[in-house]
Amino acid sequence: MKTKYLFLILIIFLFVYPAAINAQLKQTVTQVAGKTVKTATWQGREIQFVKGEIAIKINTTTTQAQINELLNKVGGKIINSFDKLGWGLIELPSGKDEILTIEDLKNLPFVVTSEPNMITKVDVEPNDPYFKGTSPATYSYQ
Description:
Blueprint: H1 2-25, E1 31-32, E2 35-42, E3 45-58, H2 64-74, E4 77-80, E5 87-91, H3 98-105, E6 111-118
Antiparallel strand pairs: 1-2, 2-3, 3-5, 3-6, 4-5
């Protein structure tokens, strides 16, 4: 009987405890600049992105009428206007699924690509010899 309890405790420490620790170490961001962050699977990997926002790249020859068609199709509004390269940021109505909307936009001929407004984390220090890890930068040559 005592052996069973020791075995059960051993199993808990070997399998359950490390899984709980791993879940705590994997930090999930819940807010960025006051906006809610979601986690979902997109293109076969788990990503974090701003809820209700998608980044869209359109052809540089796209007309305003086509942009209006895009906005009507998704029911959204422009947060960041389309730049010279064709990238813009669209806010979706609440409750609209970002991943499904991205799939729908693939059918529009003037949409080059669309993706969630992803949250990324940089874990590497730049290879800039003048980088001193301060913000704002205080380079010796300035």
